[in-house]
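Q: I'm a student working through a structural biology exercise. My instructor gave each of us a protein and asked us to get a predicted structure, then write a short paragraph describing it. Mine is 4-hydroxy-3-methylbut-2-enyl diphosphate reductase. I'm not confident about reading structure output yet, so if you can add a plain explanation after the tokens, that would really help. Here is the sequence I was given:
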Amino acid sequence: MQIIRARVLGMCMGVRRAEELAREAATKAFQEGSRVYTYGPLIHNPQAVADLESLGVHVLDAKAIETGTGELPDLKNAAVVIRAHGASLAALSRLHELGASIIDATCPRVIKSQRLARHYEKLGWQVVLVGDPHHGEIAGILGHTSNALVVDSPKMALQMAEKLKDHPCALIAQTTIRQEDYDAVIEVFQAHVKNMAAEKTICPATRERQRALIDLCGQVDAMLIVGGKNSENTKRLYASAIECGVPAWHIETASELKTEMVKFARIGITAGASTPDFIVDEIQETLSNMV
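A: Happy to help. First, here is the predicted structure for 4-hydroxy-3-methylbut-2-enyl diphosphate reductase. I'll explain a few features afterward.
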């Protein structure tokens, strides 16, 4: 059996930077006898979160911080790493009030989206975020505006566009959605809204992983998609593999490998933007040993 990796896979720049900052904070906290936390799970990958936990990097309840409800540990003089998805202005203010030292690991591309949202809102435009309303990035950008709206499908976009047809609208996409999904929403707004703008905010890493996956599907007999089951971009990679018509599996760890996978002559591997290198290496090694 031949195992072929996608030409682009695994952790993107933003996630890798966030993990590095968290590890640096953990080392410093150990030396100083202090504490370090992350604003919600730093990465959409349980194994990576567990690895950081073993270093003393604990996860804070982002919702408790955002709403000011629920129990939180004493954060005075503790370091809190903001994940690549970013955080709302209310959450950042709350952390300051609690005495935390903030390490901002927000992805630069997400920061750009936050700034664009504030910019258009100041101009009086209706900001429309395109993506998953429950995703941390979208929640964070919402928290940088006062009345932004969210759409997650062309059907929902149509309902919204018809109501906003006489109001200038600015579309800002979640950095990790598929370009095709964003384009479908843009098309709806262009057909119904007189004055609109669609910002190019999708991260190239998302497109690169999608393109690399599609290219690889044409070279292999089956695909393994590696990443957290709670990772949206990993789930989209899996969906794309299925659309390509090849047998595919979405797995988190080597323990999920099945004997049926080794019956293929050529099997491809790709990984979501929050998947650590060590997990991909472990899966490839285990798969090789199963032959």
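A: Here are two points you could use in your paragraph. Residues 13-108 form a domain with the Rossmann fold fold (CATH 3.40.50.11270). DSSP finds eleven helices and twelve strands in the chain. It's a good idea to check both against the output above yourself.
Q: Great, thank you!
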